[in-house]
Amino acid sequence: MPVSxxxxxxxxxxxxENRILLLxxxxxxxDRQAALLKELxxxxxxxxxxxxxxxRHGVMPLLYxxxxxxxxxxxxxxxxxxLRGYVKExxxxxxxxxGELLRIIRFLREHGIRAIAFKGPxxxxxxxxxxxxxxxxxxxxxxxxxxxxxxxxxLTSDGYRAVLPHPQVKAAAGFQLDYxxxxxxxxRRARLDLHRKIVPxxxxxxxxxxxxxxxxxxxxxxxxxxxxxxxxxLLSVLCIHGAKDQWPKLEGILAVALLISAGxxxxxxxxxxxAPARGGDRLHGLGLWLAxxxxxxxxxxxxxxxxxxxxxxxxxxxxxGTNFFQQKDRQNIGSKLLFFFSLSRGAGQKMKFLGRLGLTxxxxxxxxxxxxxxxxxxxxxxxxxxxxxxxxxxxGEFLRRARRKHAEGEx
Amino acid sequence: xxxxxxLRAVISEAAVVVAAPGQLSSGLxxxxxxxxxxxxxxxxxxxxGTRVWSFIQAPRRVREIRDLxxxxxxxxxxxxxxxxxELLEELAREGLIEIQEGVCP
Lengths: 411, 105
Fold this sequence. Notes:
The structure holds two protein chains of two kinds.
Chain A: H1 16-24, H2 31-41, H3 47-56, H4 60-70, H5 77-110, E1 115-118, H6 120-128, E2 139-143, H7 148-157, E3 161-162, H8 167-172, E4 180-184, E5 191-195, H9 209-215, E6 217-221, E7 224-228, H10 231-244, H11 250-262, H12 268-274, H13 281-295, H14 301-308, H15 311-322, H16 333-342, H17 346-362, H18 366-371, H19 382-407
Helix pairs in contact in A: 1-2, 1-3, 4-5, 6-11, 10-11, 10-13, 11-13, 13-14, 13-15, 16-19
Chain B: E1 6-7, E2 16-19, E3 23-26, E4 33-36, E5 41-45, H1 47-55, E6 60-61, H2 62-72, H3 77-93, E7 97-100
Parallel strand pairs in B: 1-5
Antiparallel strand pairs in B: 2-6, 2-7, 3-4, 4-5
């Protein structure tokens, strides 16, 4: 991937530490990049800032690899030692979690449940090329909705516990199941996100799960067969997950870039054909443009033409790029919803989004239950309590941001 | 409980060795980390051990591994052989490699 400042570059992009980080955020450096790294490292590097930025953007392993292979002699020994310690610990944790993933998959399979593994170790091996090349703190498994209750019961019998109220408790109180459940192993060393779906209903993202299951493919990991997403579906999932948090980390964009440049060949016609049923055109255009514009990954002309045909996708990407190295708070739910509204293309899709959002927002969730636990037979009261709770918490912020975005022409 | 040990690198030179199934490995520098999936034990290999580990991802005769190491490192041949045997014996004791005597790789 070429190294250059992007058109979307904003404050912080020309800072020496961030230039080093961008250069090192790759699985290998060619001769030109290695020479440029040596040149940058000869400058007045603020090593602590570089370390913090690498941690924040999830690229510490690759920073260490690039520094250790490229120019270890110009890096302070104590700094390299500290990075090495982090990377070793990361490797040990990743190996442990991968072993646990294989054990869980085998356990579920023995009881007739097929699971698709994504992100975590599978992403590390298939896209980054090594289990230690990225950090992950949990495992992600997708199982079919009709098998979810059985899967939860099996994992519970295996010692896993739901972090939030158990699905059975929620079901007894009248709630629908969430898109995923966060589980912790009995010794608290392993954390598993068990998914019924890839993305929360709240973001109103269209997704065809049947074709995703049909297109899943096996890979070999530790001598075992593990089912995972095909490259095109993985690309969609990476774009959705990046958009879910408004692309806060370099690692998210890097994963897209590596999948395109170093993973199995992408069937771009399939990506473009599936995009409307995998989160939408604009969501894909945003993720792809970020990888193209900020990290220089090449894209086919047909894909670039399609992205250019949707200027708001590029505007959104440039806004993300401009603020990338500034620590803006993008985590509040109002900001996320407005962002996903911006990803809807055309009046028709926007109306559908608002319709789905209305249904989703009026449907009670466990937050109402935690606010006021009621027995199952009083569940209908939550339909009254929910709008009151949401208006009180989010209404003002959402309206302020919507007015600002409308004034700026983004929606 | 996973434990970490630095392995140093026994068996005839005609024996064929290969990494055993059921394990994972990773490494971003010269030193690799291994995990035995069945037990959850992890191991660290130093630079030479990592190099040997990379050689035995496919079956190789011990003498072939020795010759490869002699090409890459400036080391006395006898010392190389002894260290290699020690490493292979340790890996075998931990169940990380399979050894077959008197077969073709």
